[in-house]
Amino acid sequence: MRRNRTKAVIILAGISTVLLLGEWSGVTEFVQSGELSRQETRSVTALSGNIGAEGDNNLLDEIKRQADKLNEKPVDAVIDRVWKAIPGYNGREVDVEATYLKTMEMRQKSKTNPEQVPIAYVYRETKPARSLKDLGPQPIYRGNPHKQMAAIMINVAWGNEYIEPMLDTLDEEGVKATFFLDGSWLKKYPEVAKEIQKRGHQLENHAYSHPNMSRLGTERATLEISKTKQLLKDTLGVDNTWFAPPSGDFNQRTVEIAASQGLKTVLWTVDTVDWKNPDPSSVVAKIAQKAGPGSLILMHPTASSKQALKGIIQALKQKGLKVGTVEETLSQGRVDIDS
Q1: What three-state secondary structure class fits 295?
Q2: Measured between alpha carbons, how far is residue 253 from residues 98, 195, 215, 226, 243 in Å?
Q3: Which helix (DSSP H) or strand (DSSP E) does residue 181 occupy?
Q4: How far apart, in Å, are the Cα atoms of 9 and each of 19, 31, 34, 36, 45?
């Protein structure tokens, strides 16, 4: 095919960007609508080596150099001697091709010196070789310590008068929590549960009648979990995935029974012990001292927690932690990169 000059018209995220690629042969005009496929992205990047005077080879080389510094390896899920199952954590790597194209797009649109436009890094997450599901039925007390996130878990079997003000505080702070509902409570107060759900919080399983699970026979223990699991589905449309044993009482059989119903057994990292009605300021101080990345903070709808909740959330945020649900905190997804 005859050598000629041509333009590759790239429509990226709905914006047309024209890159003059200089002289090259064997390629006709390339037009792609919508997102570029990885193959097409690599093709355009390969061609960009001929841009020459535009200085784009230097840009590509710089992206590759910085990628070596910015890439982070994933962390495998492990069974810890103290904390039992600890979730894995996704790594990240610079998508060199996408970063190159995004930066070129920004520089093409820049009204100043294109070289002054910083590199717009695009990342992709990389999964660990070993995840929670590979560890088998194990209790979970905390998230991965590399993940700058903590969760508020609220076990509900009593104390209705404090739920709404706690929900208001969560709204004010822009935080979603996980409420573990006792099945008998849910059956008695479905409208309160629906209000919790309406506010956007995660709803999970706290058995049916608040028993000591380790003292139950297999049939009764199975029923305690399955009855609440079905009630969550029938009342709220929730597909339950987590189980919090009442009073933190369980044994390995409990974990295996929960697993047989598709549920992971979760405990806590830091306990507010709010059922003893401690001074709210002492609760906040305790969380500020002991909570860290991956922490699960146990609370109940009590007067003490109602007053301490705002301070707890602010203390966690001041430690640089994103505050969210148990599901979010125990997932291996990163919190510093858009998925």
Answers
A1: coil
A2: 49, 34, 10, 15, 13
A3: strand 178-181
A4: 7, 5, 12, 12, 13
Burial of 88 (0-12, 13-18, 19+ CB in 10 A): buried
pLDDT digits 0-9 by tens, 49-99: 433 334 578 999 999 999 999 999 999 999 999 999 999 999 999 999 999
Q: Say which amino acid occupies 227.
A: K
Q: Specify whether the CB–CB gap between 205 and 239 falls below 8 A.
A: no
CB of 304 closer than 8 Å to CB of 274? yes
φ and ψ at residue 181, rounded to 5 degrees: -100, 130
- Which domains does the chain carry? 4-126 (no CATH), 137-330 (3.20.20.370)
User: In which band, very low, low, confident or very high, does the pLDDT at 112 lie, cut at 50, 70 and 90?
Assistant: confident
- Max CA-CA distance within the chain? 84
| Cα gap 299→303, rounded to integer Å | 11
Instruction: For strands 15-24 and 4-12, give the pairing.
Output: antiparallel
Q: DSSP assignment, residue 128? A: -
